[in-house]
Amino acid sequence: MRRFRPLLAAALLSLALPVAAFAQSGGIIPLPLDSDPSGGVSDSMIDQLNADRIEAEAHRGTYVEEIAVDPTVISPLRPIEARGRPAGSAIRFDGERRTLQFALFVPRPDQVRALRISTLSSINVLPERSHYRVWVNETMVGEGRLENFTSFGTVDFPMNAAAVLPGQNNVRIELVQYHRIYCGPEASFALWSDIDLANSGAVLASSEGISGQEGFLMGLAAAAATGSGIEIRGADGLGAYRDAWVSTITQRISAALGGDPIPFRFTEYWSVQGAARSAARITFLPSTANRLTFRVSGDGAQVMVVEFVPDERPHALPEFENILPRVADRAQPPLIDTMRPVAFSEFGFETTEVYDHYARIDTRFRLPDDWIVLTNDKAEIRLDYIFIEGLPDQSVLLVHINNENVRLLPMWRGGGELIEQFPVRFEARLLRAGINTLSFEVLVPGSPPDMPCPFNDTPILAIGQSSTLSVPYSPSMYLPDMHIAFAGLTPASVETNEMSARSFDDNDVVTLQAALSGGERPDAVALNTHLYLLALDDLGSVPLGGYQLSRRALEAALLHNDTAPAATGAEPAHALLRARERSDSGAALSRGWDWLKNGFQTALQWLQPRSGLLLEQWLERQNAQAVLLQLDPGRPNQLWMVRAPESDISAIASAIVAARTNTDGPRGQVSVLDRDGRWQNWTAPDRQPVLLEAVTLSNVRHVVGNVVSAMPIRYVAGLFFLALVSALFALRLVIATREHKQ
């Protein structure tokens, strides 16, 4: 122990000496006086010290400067009319002039700061003249230029609270476009502008206080604009009444909002937030009473909480029926009378003025389902119209019936005077039972065509609503066609079986049922229509009604391969695969017999068309995302639908909703929804009209005319056969008479 005392004393002395020196220097640390600033420390040691310091600083984390977050939110625009496009896509304005209507939901008018419009235009648009105007509740809020060509650009139009109503508001956007180089119909086809629905709408100061019924409506519009859909949670707890509860809520929402349907998807109570977060959600919670409450979730979604009594049927929720304003009705065109002049105003056409070098005006009306004219009877339009003087040469007005041109009216001569009741007669067989479209197409060449069009704010043509349409008489007859069953589809019409889940999951079925709520015809609903959802493996359950339809043909349409087929003249991979031409007499006789047989079958197909091979060949040329079938004429109230793998059910539902109000919907025996969202129809050439009333002296001529006109070649062949037999008898009579005289 004693030997450590000298060492301890030396250590204490070494510590005390620097402290004393520091005290004598007045608390200032003395600097070294030698010329080497490093004090004998090497460069490598300095680099190591700096590295340690920087790494330590990095371990403490990077400092992030606080950035002010924009608290504003957008209540998106909601298109009123169904476009037949899936939710989440931009809406397009094409042509020189167009106007569209939207719905806008505002929870609190005092929170509104501006109306934002996000646009993207074609490079052909001339920005100095092209513009758009916006009205809210018939009050103009601003005008903007179309000058965004590479990406969407936004413009905020200031709005005060007085111009906005709490809840639903009506927004109208009118757009005018000019081509920057050319003028005329061809130039008009190259003009378009898109509006981004997800980023266009009312700009609200913040999301604070946005809740309740109006907040939920705003969430519905946002879910439709972004395409994320509406989440449904807690549906598994509904038990045996799950389908009834879900159908009641989803169908009421879809019917009230109008426009394109909103997709629905089931999620768990507790789930990880994904990239496609929904702005609106429906949550079912068990309770002691049936009632509704509205909340805002932690992720910002507007939630409608549906409290239900377990193991009880769904009861009426009066507050739910009243919170959803009916934005637009999915109404079908009006039914018109036959055998009398019907004014255009009776089926919704109003006097229309045309300003553009190209314009197409479509108006729709409906004829009875038992109306058929296949003969040479005429229908007539009495047209009231006027156009200005001095239009360029070859300016024309075309009149179309169901996309078939029936008259060309020149407009480069005369003008300036009202033309009243101008007769336009056309074949009545161009009309059909159900929805028809009467179209007016205007084409005015540019003057000159290689310069931008001059500014024009005066109409060049007007078509009066006092014009009339006369449709001839038809006996009560029916041609097998799926349009009647399609018009009567309701949510209750959707049928599934144990194999449907291979192509349609629960989300798909609910979305499709909600899309079918609204727009049906009551008289067609009385037929108790059915829509069977099928998988390709269940194709055998489809009644074919004598037609030929194979799985191979359907797969060719639904699983379309875009790769080009191999050249027919290519050499085979192996010489043994090359077919050998036989030159013996037996082979020549066989080829001759095959030629005669094929010719005979072709002649029979011409005389009596059979639809088997024709249908399969037509299907193989299609590129479908869904196929509707109605092959059995004995089941006019039943439809079968098959969809392609990986197809979007919201796109299919949108196309169905849009088709229920126009003539471009499913017709005939097979209808294909192609990848562009258009319906392609196949009609059997051998379908026969069915008489639905007794034959009388007053209708026998029309009945026989329709039956004969449906398949004229067979009756021509029959008359030819009778004439041939009569000629043989006459020849025999002449020969017998000459023999008797001899």
UniProtKB/TrEMBL annotation:
Transmembrane segments: 715-735
Entry superkingdom: Bacteria
GO biological process per UniProt: cellulose biosynthetic process; UDP-alpha-D-glucose metabolic process
Residue span, Cellulose synthase subunit B-like C-terminal domain: 605-738
Signal peptide: 1-23
Record pathway: Glycan metabolism; bacterial cellulose biosynthesis
Keywords: c-di-GMP, Cell inner membrane, Cell membrane, Cellulose biosynthesis, Membrane, Signal, Transmembrane, Transmembrane helix
Subcellular localization, as worded in the UniProt entry: Cell inner membrane
Pfam families per UniProt: BcsB, BscB_a-b
GO cellular component, one term: plasma membrane
Transmembrane in keyword set: yes
InterPro entries in the cross-refs: BscB-like_C, Cell_synthase_bac
Function: Binds the cellulose synthase activator, bis-(3'-5') cyclic diguanylic acid (c-di-GMP).
Assembly and oligomerization: Tightly associated with the cellulose synthase catalytic subunit.
Family indicated by similarity: Belongs to the AcsB/BcsB family.
Protein name according to UniProt: Cyclic di-GMP-binding protein
